[in-house]
Design brief:
Blueprint lengths: L2 E11 L9 H9 L15 E6 L4 E6 L15 E2 L2 E2 L40 H5 L5 E11 L6 H13 L1 H16 L1
Antiparallel strand pairs: 1-6, 2-3, 4-5
Helix pairs in contact: 3-4
Bound molecules: iron/sulfur cluster (2 copies).
One iron/sulfur cluster binds next to helix 1 and strand 3.
Length: about 180
Amino acid sequence: MGKVKKKIKTIRIDLDKCNGCRACEMICSAFHANPKYSSNNPARSRIRMIRDPIRDVYVPVYAGEYTPAECMGRDKYIIDGKEYDECGFCRASCPSRDAFKEPDSGLPLKCDMCEDDPAQEKPLCVQWCLNEALIYEEREEEVEEETKIEDIEMGLESLIDKYGMQNIMDTMARISMSKKG
Ligand code: SF4
Ligand code: SF4
């Protein structure tokens, strides 16, 4: 595989500016509803707030990769004397917890930087964060060519992990027959 130019999209998070308002969760879930903006439910958001107002803890965490198995160890951070939940900053959609899973289907959720056609000027969570805690940046880098994993592939992988390849193939064949009939 050769080198290609890739647009690197980054959201810088300024924790000092986040007040835990959760506007980012609301708009992300609304943007990804089907049809768009028809509903909102933070449990379907691809950004989740770690929120503990008594201790003044507000940490937005973005949904990352799907993983079929939880890792061997757990991590726990203490920053400025505040202790954060186990795995609190982890972005994975992982079997050890409910975060970053579609609540009805259990399928993994991953931040897609609000891919849209036509493209959004900035991701929706950035646009809706009135406190400017989320700052969007773009740059170009030369990287190794990679195969992009689409949402559908990630969802299928998690279904195969859960039900097995044969069950999925049999179900697909059954659905395809009923659609034809
Ligand atoms: S919209 Fe901004 S301030 Fe509000 S919770 Fe999200 S990151 Fe924090
Ligand atoms: S960038 Fe878009 S998809 Fe990602 S968390 Fe923000 S609103 Fe959701």
